[in-house]
Amino acid sequence: MIDQKLLSILVCPVSKAPLEYMPEQQELVCWASGLAYPIRDDIPVMLETEARTLTQEEKDAHAR
Q1: Between 2.60.40.730, 3.40.1360.10, 2.20.25.10, 3.40.50.1820, what CATH number should domain 4-63 receive?
Q2: Which helix (H) or strand (E) covers residue 7, if one does?
Q3: How many other CB atoms are there within 10 angstroms of residue 53's CB atom?
Q4: How far is CA 42 from CA 26, 32, 60, in A?
Q5: What confidence tier does 58 reach under pLDDT thresholds 50, 70, 90?
Q6: What does R_g of the chain's alpha carbons equal in angstroms?
Q7: pLDDT value at residue 9
Q8: Predicted local distance difference test score (pLDDT) of residue 4
Q9: 18-42, pLDDT tens digit by residue?
Q10: pTM of the model
Q11: What angle (nearest 5°) sits at the alpha carbon of residue 34, between those of residues 64 and 37?
């Protein structure tokens, strides 16, 4: 579980947009940039090179 205070200050390093915590995937998602940053050992890995690109299906599901 990621600390809510930490989550409130973290932003996407690419778009500077807020992040959404996805506990089941252990990721922080930026819908603006379309990237998902992994959380490893309770530490967010906020590197663009470590992020995965969201699928079109994920973006479409969020838009609904």
Answers
A1: 2.20.25.10
A2: helix 4-9
A3: 11
A4: 9, 23, 28
A5: very high
A6: 11
A7: 94
A8: 87
A9: 999 999 999 999 999 999 999 999 8
A10: 0.92
A11: 115
